[in-house]
Amino acid sequence: MAPLVPDIISNEFNFFIALIVGVGFGFALEQAGFSSTKKLVGLFYGYDFTVLKVFFTAGVTAMTGVVLLGHLGILNLEMLYINPTFLPSAIVGGVIMGAGFVIGGFCPGTSVCAAAVGKLDGLAFIGGSILGIFAFMEFYPMLKPLYMSSPEGGLLIFEQMGVSRNVFAIILISIALIAFFAVTLIENAVNNKKTIYPARVVRKNMLLAAIPFVIVLFVFITPDTEQRIVNKIEKARREGKCEVRLIDADKVASEMVQQYFKYYLIDVRSPEEYKKSHIPLAINVPVDSIRNEEFRNYFTQHHRKVVFYSDDDTTARKACLISRFLGSSDNYVMREEFTEFTRLFPKNQGEDFAIPDNVNKEVFMFRLSASKKLYDLEEALKHQSAPVKKKKTKIQGGCS
Amino acid sequence: MGESTKYMNPYLAGFILGIVLLITIVITGRGLGASGAYKDGIAATVKTAAPTHFNNAQYFQEYQQKNDGNPLRSWLVFEVIGVLIGAFISGVLSDRVSLRLEKGPRVKNYTRVIAAILGGALFGFGSQLGRGCTSGSALSGMAIMSFGGIITMMAIFGGAYMFAYFFRKLWLK
Question: Alpha-carbon torsion B163, B166, B168, B169, what sign?
Fold first, then answer.
């Protein structure tokens, strides 16, 4: 499941990919004519809208692809790097870049393309960029208040607009198509050309324009991966195939004491509850994040059994059922709820523990000693890497 | 010159660019970039040429905290080297490689060079302040629907249109 870096592809190989991707990027930019400063600036004087056409087509293509792959469960959208929003610096920086664009006739990527085909103005622009970036670095202490003001984190535009991702995709595609039509008219007017659309061209354009709409529409009407899993569980439940295997708390405790390394004891409650108290050696995977990439390893392995527990039976069962669609691990649900477990296995380590009358003495002593051993184990293993908590690998990125 | 006819259809070029961007997102989880490579290149130069300054200046201290290791081993540096190669290949295939200066019809050579340096400096400066340029912030931002990226994009193009009138003599007849 994508993105492939950093979990699937190593960072070393990643640099090779960077090179290849760069070649594609540079090739496409140069073919589009972005190595020509006059073609680029044409956008701002109305005689050549190539930049807008290329830029919007690329944006819409990539965006539609992201929406589609995300929907199919191939690309995990939550793992994508969203550059953080700092409105004041984004706007001021953007306007300064705009001035640089119209004065210098390039942007950083296109100036590299221009220099590659021997344009000296492109080279001069690169030189200027280096000066500008160096100036920013040197004056950073002065600029920092503006640079860091009103941090809002990685915001998504459709959330800001209060619409869904798909609705925004439709809006953006529509804007792009209207813009393509409008700029062609403007371009022809500025260059004193007549706009003629033969029927054949109209048909072809309509067909091409329909493609992104059809893709987003497909995403709209078909259930996504999440929904498909829920549907599958529902179906299984209706058909009575929804059985989960149960395991007794006593069995869990004795197994954990003897061979904790053969189990993943998974607490599916919220991180807050987990932090307050949990069964020793348990790992926290909140039921809502069970599908997250970082926990996937627990459910795709075969060398450890997985035992879920929670505060209520339904949640633990739900977690167990979801995990069944994530991988083929050997899954169980602890019969007792967490509160019940803590009652049966009290954390009192004192010697004179009064044995209640209504319980079997041997059972009680077993539980007491198991509890102590579990806590001792947890303490002993704390300094090892043993209960592996997978570190969430963060995607670094952006172009800043 | 009649060379413009040789450029690829903009929609086709845009589609190819979009696919490259999509592949990048699928593989790396982030978009393309350009100005970031300059930043890493400059950081590497400062580190070698003026190590004391590198260790003392606030910017580089924060930079080091964010990026451990050699700045030149950054993803974007490799990517931009690729851009250079890719553009050169494209230029060779379309027979566009030659040493020359492209400029508006009324502009002298040195004016064009100064304008390019000045424009580059502004763009470079702005890209650091705005956390990304046309590639990393605007284009990639659109693809992943980043709010900040799209705002930066609108500011770049809005700014350019705002200033276009004042600098028309650089470009128009």
Answer: negative
